[in-house]
From TrEMBL:
Gene3D superfamilies (UniProt xref): Malonyl-[acyl-carrier protein] O-methyltransferase, zinc-finger motif
Species of origin: Actinopolyspora xinjiangensis
Protein name: Zinc-finger
Keywords: Metal-binding, Zinc, Zinc-finger
Region of interest (Disordered), residue spans: 1-26, 62-83
Chaperone recorded as keyword: no
Basic and acidic residues bias spans: 71-83
Coiled coil spans: none
Tagged with keyword Transmembrane: no
Length: 83
């Protein structure tokens, strides 16, 4: 199933972006600035650990609205100032 966004690890969270992924890749390359659905400009990261970062609550909320999924009932991720 294709979605109108791409998940991307950036700045210690997993964000989502509608920016186009540079071909032929399926994900953003490292150290690229992209517009996240939370309204922030973020610098991308790569690696297995980066994909384990908590999901940005604002990006999660927006992606769920875009695909018609129900909202999360948990905290939606750890805020950076609560670590």
């Amino acid at each position: 199933m294709s979605h109108p966004f791409t998940w991307v690890p950036a700045e210690e969270q997993r964000h989502a972006s509608r920016d186009p992924v540079p071909p032929p890749a399926l994900e953003f390359p490292p150290e690229l600035t992209v517009s996240a659905l939370c309204g922030r400009e973020v610098v991308t990261a790569t690696g297995e650990i980066a994909w384990l970062w908590p999901t940005c609550p604002e990006c999660d909320r927006t992606t769920r609205e875009l695909v018609g999924a129900p909202p999360r009932h948990d905290s939606g991720g750890v805020k950076r100032d609560e670590r």
